[in-house]
Design brief:
The complex is a heterodimer. Chain A is an alpha+beta fold. In chain A, 36% of the residues lie in helices and 25% in strands. In chain A, strands 1, 2, 3, 4, 5, 6, 7, 8, 9 and 10 form a ten-stranded mixed beta sheet that branches. Chain A has a five-stranded mixed beta sheet with strand order 12-11-19-15-16. A four-stranded antiparallel beta sheet of chain A has the order 13-14-17-18. The relative contact order of chain A is 0.10. Classes of the chains: A alpha+beta, B mainly alpha.
Chain lengths: 429, 235
């Protein structure tokens, strides 16, 4: 008998509390303008809000949200446009479905073929490139299947399948899952069996599973790096294959689907996201924590700004074991004494190229006496090494000028892989 | 092991230092579950009393339906509500103002009311059935209206009714699948304890996840302790 009233009071108290709270906030659940989430609320509530913020529902993939990127950039948009961006983070497949059903206003996803289909089917009217990151194959540090350092991602998966090494797949139709499927397809393998686990979960959960089970998995670099800060011990075993490239796109949802879809605000959001200052901020995200950006800006306005800026920027440099490290702009290289040479193009046909001889550039930089090798690096990260003496002795090896800007190494008589398109750096080693 | 201790310590620190993010989630959980409980109680207790006390054709079928509803997987209810409210769904395209939109608190409340109401009906039904039938006969003999009879029986069965309410609250506050689907786990809008625990675990913020889990555990423990207490006493 004695504690009945007490419980009554507890239940009653709870109900009353929630009704009071509910009365303050719940009829329109746009509630929390109050001192909200600590990491996000940079805009201090000092001034009275001018008007009720507009709500924009952003359907996105777990990678952009879980990595913390959106928390980092969105407050600026919310302040500038008096909007509240409500982020629903899902696998890309689900996020795109959200758009198809008209339940979101704008989508930020990474699955190019699905994005193109989305636009082609009229679910959205506008798609823009935003940024990219890359995928990596991660696994236990002892690497029982021995894939560490492999350059070809499909071959690495093939090795895993042959070894029946435990592999955890997202299995959720996300962008990462689509990428994984395309890699298996490239390897001509239909993965199945005890070793292949389809988790049906987000990236973070899958990384945790892989760690627990000492299994391999495919991850985007951003989520992987973010998780290593939290103590994840899995290691990157395969990276750098162009197949692992992971571009993100932003799309609006066709406002004709439903009158509640905020077409104008979605458009403003897209303009904002691809604008140069925001792109710069995307490129800066994570640098302080990881020493490298998690996402590389890649929107059209950003690319345009880069090309405009480039004539004055360094286009080619010589570094390493040289008496004098040198760097030139494109115009400076073109102003040097040029020569014509005949070399084979990629089809094996003879073609004439104009450019500056390697011997002249090396003479300017003066390689040190113990230097033996020359490393040529392209703007896409491709590198090749050649004995230094051979290049110094080569009279018709040149840095040729490309019609679209930039340089290509032309090395008549050398192996085909020494033709480096988009050459940006000559390292003396 | 270290992770767990660190998480536990950090979780407790956030809890007691009044961490804004953590407390916002706690308050939202309290709100959502409170409103849902209120609505499902308003529906469930009278319905339970009526089904428990009156005899009408098809009563057994209704009872069977209620018991089915008590065991209905919440995630299926979540999917159903999602499809109802989706703008390409059944009610969504009508764009009526009173129909809750997806990814809002009212949508979550709707799903939870559908989950909790059968529980409350079921428990209330059982509670009023346990009241000595002679009481009703006596009341009627004394000239009480059916309304008065029901009210008196409910009062007599209040232990069981409280178990019903607390049980409903327990199921509401620990529910995750349905609120994730229809709420969308939006920060500052629809993120409640259970969905936040899922997210923070996924993100690797184990300390925050543990802090949230402690709160949820504490709440559900209290709720279930209360129920156990009452069930023991009513036996």
């Amino acid at each position: 008998m004695s504690n009945k009233p007490v419980v009554f009071k507890i239940v009653l108290g709870w109900v009353l509390l929630s009704v009071v709270l509910g009365a303050c906030t719940s009829p329109t659940p746009k509630s929390t303008t109050a001192p909200t989430a600590a990491p996000v609320a940079t805009a201090a509530p000092t001034t009275a809000p001018a008007a009720e913020p507009q709500k924009l529902i952003l359907g996105t993939t777990t990678s952009t949200y879980d990595s913390g990127l959106l928390d980092y950039i969105l407050p600026d948009f919310e302040a500038a446009f008096n909007a509240k961006v409500e982020v629903v983070s899902l696998g890309t497949g689900q996020a795109i479905q959200l758009g198809k059903d008209g339940n979101a206003d704008v989508l930020l996803v990474h699955a190019r073929s699905q994005e193109d289909a989305f636009i082609a089917d009229g679910h959205g009217t506008r798609r823009e490139d935003v940024m990219y990151n890359d995928f990596v194959i991660v696994g236990p540090s002892d690497d029982p299947a021995g894939i560490k350092g492999m350059k070809n991602a499909s071959r690495a998966l093939e090795t895993l399948a042959t070894a029946k090494a435990a592999f955890i797949s997202r299995g959720d139709d996300s962008g990462t899952h689509s990428k994984e499927k395309s890699l298996w397809k490239a390897a001509n393998i239909e993965p199945s069996g005890d070793w292949y686990v389809s988790a049906g979960q987000g990236m973070g959960a899958v990384l945790s599973m892989a760690e627990e089970q000492q299994a391999y998995t495919l991850s985007d670099r951003a989520t992987y790096l973010a998780r290593t800060l939290e103590g994840l011990k899995l290691e990157i075993l395969v990276e750098g294959d162009t197949l692992l490239f992971n571009p993100y796109g932003v799309m609006n949802v066709n406002p004709e689907k439903n009158p509640n879809i905020k077409g104008d605000l979605a458009n403003q959001f897209i303009d904002w996201l691809i604008s140069v200052p925001v792109q710069e901020k995307i490129g800066a995200f994570g640098v302080d924590k990881f020493g490298a950006p998690l996402f590389v800006p890649d929107s059209q306005p950003w690319r345009d700004a880069q090309t405009l800026a480039s004539p004055g920027d360094t286009a080619l440099k010589v570094s390493g074991k040289v008496a004098q490290a040198l760097q030139w702009t494109e115009a400076e290289v073109k102003a040097m004494q040029a020569m014509d040479v005949e070399a084979e193009n990629s089809k094996g046909e003879k073609e004439t190229y104009t450019g500056v001889p390697f011997s002249a550039l090396l003479a300017l930089a003066q390689p040190q006496s113990d230097a033996a090798t020359l490393l040529l690096m392209a703007d896409d990260g491709y590198t090749v090494e050649i004995p230094l003496a051979d290049v110094q002795a080569c009279e018709n090896c040149i840095v040729s000028f490309r019609s679209e800007g930039g340089f290509t190494s032309r090395m008549p008589g050398f192996a085909k892989n020494t033709t480096v398109k988009g050459l940006i750096e000559i390292q003396v080693k | 092991m270290q992770v767990i201790w660190d998480g536990l310590r950090e979780g407790l620190r956030m809890l007691f230092s009044g961490d804004a993010y953590l407390w916002e989630i706690i308050m939202l959980s309290a709100q959502v579950s409170g409103v849902a409980l209120l609505l499902s109680a308003a529906l469930g207790v009278p319905l339970g009393a009526v089904i428990g006390l009156t005899h009408f054709p098809g009563r057994r079928v209704v009872q069977a339906l209620v018991y089915t509803g008590m065991g209905f997987p919440p995630v299926v209810i979540g999917l159903t509500v999602y499809l109802l409210l989706s703008r390409s769904g059944i009610l969504g395209p009508l764009n009526w103002a009173w129909i809750p939109q997806l990814f809002t608190v009212p949508a979550m409340v709707l799903a939870q009311v559908i989950i909790a109401t059968p529980l409350i009906i079921g428990y209330t039904m059982a509670a009023v059935a346990e009241v000595d039938p002679n009481l009703r006969l006596q009341l009627r003999a004394l000239g009480a209206t059916p309304h008065q009879v029901t009210w008196t029986v409910l009062k007599e069965a209040r232990q069981g009714v409280i178990v019903a309410l607390v049980g409903g609250l327990g199921s509401i506050i620990s529910e995750v699948g349905a609120v994730m689907m229809v709420g969308g786990n939006i920060e500052g809008a629809t993120r409640v304890l259970t969905t936040a625990i899922m997210l923070e675990t996924r993100r690797g913020n184990l300390d925050l996840a543990i802090g949230l889990a402690l709160v949820l555990l504490g709440l559900t423990f209290l709720i279930n302790l209360t129920v156990a207490q009452f069930q023991r006493k009513s036996q």
